[in-house]
Design the sequence.
């Protein structure tokens, strides 16, 4: 589906310096029974966010008032591993996040984010550490994600790093287009190609 | 120019390449199930699109389905709603559908190969990460998200940058009690859960040549657990023998034509990979995991490594062991277990049941262990009965359930309770994967059987000799 354009984003960030955060943690399987894509934000990180009796865990970053309203999540290395469930990306979006920063993403999760308008920003491990240190020193520290120049900047110190995104996906994010728009435009080429397939 | 198997299949499916962007990649076969498809159909309809090639899409119900009383209406309303949505969408758009109760129903990655939908040289996607299973036939197969499911329904293509290429060579002969599952867990323990991120893997060498098709499926199935987009094995006589005569494979002249193509599907001798790894079969022993991702595994006779010995964050490692209630340096052998799960798209095939039965035959299930034996499909159930394995299962005090994904992701009622320890033949040991608070040890069907009989984690070789 078409989504909001992403150009620049200035926000504080939730820090989650845990490695190998898998999609079963982002949205546990028991919450995948819906047939629509809204409403997953309440269960984002369900088992890390809430106690068994439903009360929030006060030490989990997403529950801390000081970070409330942040639109960026800074996660540990290999973020989003495991299942292909796009519900994980929907939960991230539905919670109000528009960007996830990590030193490495799992492939399918990264694709899913790009397809629904959440920008995955891959930075070096050293820069991720810089961001974590800054957020822990000052939870109100702001991060600027600039898609046109492909830079992420820690505003308090000016420390900045360039990130990669392929030019096609970048155009899509900047304009709020998606792949289906593109593919429907070349349908004749696709159906001609299909005739060459042996089965 | 010399090409790898992966290059050959990939390049022949590129409709066009976008400069600085992905390839428009054509999909031959698309599997859908009840969990990741409903929103894709909503998107399709809200845009006013139709399904471009309904005959290339195949629907089966598996993730949510109960494993008992499948002849009765599904009690869980939300599950029933998803199953209804799949059936409705399939009927509306002219897609074949194997719903609950259908003789062809079962786990998507089990019924695809069984029915000859999975073919060498094909491109196969599904909104499920373990789609990598189908790579066992020399297909390029990988998991996709729901937006991409909609993309394939409406255009039969996805937008995909070509991954880098990795080859993993294992030569030599596997030892006693070492199964394809152990080979896969061994590789993942070496690669970690992110070692193959960005790569497509080809498995090569004597170990994979010697392996059955079902074993190859188990290995390719687990490729995603080291971050790989998928894994594949070059098709050979064993592959062609397996697929020949199945319901949906090409027949007659079409078969001969397909065989001409399939015989070209191998990596040219001088083709190159971005990275290669070599292991020897003798390095591999029956494997077990101790942590909360599939990379945290070891030979069953080893001890849990110290945090200082593992790569990555010490804090994350300690959190993981804390969740499992384990300590650095401990052995897994002899730990009391509560549950055993045989099944899933990793180990729910007939060979897995044969392996399980080879251990339990003439023995009894430990009284305190709850065991869920869940075949991957109705065809597997038929084979179990035809071979008399059902009698061995019953005599040993076990019960056979009906097919489905079951406790692998615990979307149905088969949930391991909080704090309980399960030996599981499934693919993931993430926190809460088999139910909130559950603790999972991944292992082969042989080790699951040995542990079910002894009531504690058991090296299957102990029950195999003498």
Sequence:
């Amino acid at each position: 589906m078409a989504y909001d354009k992403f150009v620049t984003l200035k926000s504080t960030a939730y820090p989650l310096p845990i490695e190998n955060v898998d999609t079963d943690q982002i949205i546990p399987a028991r919450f995948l029974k819906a047939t629509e894509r809204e409403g997953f934000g309440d269960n984002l990180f369900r088992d890390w966010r809430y106690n068994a009796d439903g009360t929030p865990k006060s030490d989990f970053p997403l529950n801390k008032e000081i970070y409330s309203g942040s639109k960026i999540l800074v996660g540990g290395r290999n973020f989003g591993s495991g299942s292909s469930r796009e519900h994980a990306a929907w939960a991230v979006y539905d919670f109000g996040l528009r960007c996830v920063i990590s030193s490495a993403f799992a492939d399918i999760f990264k694709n899913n984010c790009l397809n629904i308008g959440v920008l995955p920003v891959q930075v070096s491990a050293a820069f991720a550490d810089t961001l974590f240190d800054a957020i822990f020193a000052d939870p109100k520290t702001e991060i600027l994600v600039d898609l046109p120049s492909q830079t992420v900047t820690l505003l308090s110190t000016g420390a900045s790093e360039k990130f990669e995104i392929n030019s096609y996906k970048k155009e899509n994010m900047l304009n709020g287009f998606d792949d289906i728009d593109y593919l429907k435009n070349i349908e004749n080429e696709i159906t001609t190609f299909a005739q060459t397939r042996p089965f | 120019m010399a090409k790898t198997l992966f290059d050959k299949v990939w390049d022949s499916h590129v409709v066009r390449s976008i400069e600085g962007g992905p390839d428009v990649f054509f999909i031959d076969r698309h599997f859908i199930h009840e969990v990741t498809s409903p929103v894709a159909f909503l998107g399709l309809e809200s845009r006013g699109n139709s399904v471009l090639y309904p005959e290339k899409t195949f629907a089966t119900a598996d993730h949510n389905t109960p494993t008992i009383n499948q002849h009765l209406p599904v009690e869980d309303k939300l599950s029933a709603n998803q199953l209804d949505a799949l059936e409705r969408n399939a009927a509306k758009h002219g897609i074949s559908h194997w719903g609950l109760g259908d003789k062809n129903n079962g786990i998507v990655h089990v019924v695809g190969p069984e029915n000859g939908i999975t073919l060498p040289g094909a491109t196969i996607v599904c909104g499920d990460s373990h789609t990598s299973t189908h790579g066992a036939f020399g297909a390029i197969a990988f998991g996709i998200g729901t937006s991409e499911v909609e993309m394939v329904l409406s255009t039969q293509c996805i937008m995909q940058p070509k991954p880098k290429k990795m080859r993993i060579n294992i030569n030599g002969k596997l030892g006693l009690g070492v199964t394809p599952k152990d080979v896969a867990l061994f590789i993942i323990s070496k690669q970690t859960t992110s070692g193959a991120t960005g790569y497509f893997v080809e498995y090569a060498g004597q170990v994979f040549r010697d392996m059955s098709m079902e074993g190859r499926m188990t290995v390719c199935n687990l490729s995603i657990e080291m971050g790989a987009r998928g894994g594949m094995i070059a098709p050979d006589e064993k592959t062609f023998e397996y697929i020949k005569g199945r319901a949906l494979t090409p027949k007659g002249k079409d078969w001969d034509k397909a065989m001409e193509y399939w015989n070209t599907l191998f990596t040219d001798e001088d083709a190159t990979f971005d990275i290669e790894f070599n292991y020897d079969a003798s390095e591999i022993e029956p494997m077990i995991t101790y942590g909360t991702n599939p990379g945290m595994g070891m030979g069953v006779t080893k001890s849990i490594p110290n945090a200082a010995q593992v790569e990555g964050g010490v804090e994350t490692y300690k959190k993981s062991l804390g969740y499992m209630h384990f300590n650095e340096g401990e052995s897994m052998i002899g730990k009391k277990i509560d549950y055993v799960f045989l099944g899933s798209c990793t180990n729910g095939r007939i060979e897995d049941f044969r392996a399980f039965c080879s251990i339990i035959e003439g023995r009894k299930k430990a009284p305190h262990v709850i065991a869920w034996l869940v075949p991957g499909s109705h065809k597997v159930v038929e084979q179990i009965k035809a071979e008399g394995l059902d009698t061995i299962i019953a005599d040993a005090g076990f019960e056979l359930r009906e097919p489905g994904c079951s406790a692998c992701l615990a979307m149905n009622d088969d949930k391991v309770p909080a704090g309980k320890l399960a030996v599981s033949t499934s693919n993931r040991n993430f926190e809460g994967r088999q139910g909130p608070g559950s603790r999972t040890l991944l292992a082969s069907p042989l080790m699951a059987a040995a542990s079910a009989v002894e009531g504690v984690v058991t090296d299957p070789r102990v029950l195999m000799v003498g």
Q: What stands out?
A: Chain A touches chain B through 59 residues (CB under 8 Å).
